[in-house]
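Entry 14. Two folds queued back to back today. First construct below, sequence then structure tokens.
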Amino acid sequence: MESKNLILNFFKKLDKWFKDIILDDVDKPHDGPLPYHKGFGIKKDPVTRIENRFNEQKKQNRG
């Protein structure tokens, strides 16, 4: 029974160690957009974005 607890304890420590390595960046505070959102830029007002897209589509449809 003691060896089972030792093995279980070892795997729990190993799991915690891997999680600490893999999730290290997740725990850091970010003052701007998250690193995987950097390509999206600053969001404008949704209504303005929709109107701009509609106007661009009109221009393209005219040929």
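Second construct, same run, same settings:
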Amino acid sequence: MHTARPPARRLLLPLLGFLAACSRGPSREEALAAIRAAHPALDTATVRERVWQDGPPWFSCAEVIAKFTTAADSAAVRDQVGNWKPLVVHGWIVLKDSAAGPVADPGWCTVRVTPAGQANVARWTPSPGPAFPTGQARRGWMVVAGRRHLVVPSSPSRAGKDSATAEYLVTVAPNEDGRATGADRDTSRFVAALRREGGAWKVVGSQPAVPPAAR
């Protein structure tokens, strides 16, 4: 008795499918799962942001506003009090030059909480900073702005038979305070190196992505 043999094509199609699965790179979902496994805290970490009540020493409000969008003095202005701008737009604060105490010509820039912002600011945690040249502690708050959120914006790129790279973004899923302080615009880009091990994709390295303008 002879057993009928299945056509070769029936055997070939599953084999081709298997080989294709082995040779393809990871999907966006697989890459995201691998990145989350390698950095489990990124998708759950609480984001806290510093909001200063006192601006950088010796800077008037006019100087601070003029330098929000420039590279000049960015470490003292944009990096420290860049969240003032969205807070002003939200109507939670206004900026006023201080004219009290040893510094009075014209004084440095300070935050005044508006009536519309009082209920929101009331939940912030006071957090003073290092002393000014006058010896007074710099006033400020720590604000819970939301949680970290991982995103793989595009399909990973194959780098070899069992390797690939995937760009991923670390963003902020903001709460009300995060939206008011502009934390939802805080995005960092990274590139993960992926390798398939035991049929699963794993992250074997990660580094900051090159900004598009610098490529």
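Quick look at the second one. Confidence is low (pLDDT under 50) at residues 15-21. The beta strands are 46-52, 93-97, 109-113, 125-126, 140-151, 157-160, 163-174, 188-197, 200-208.
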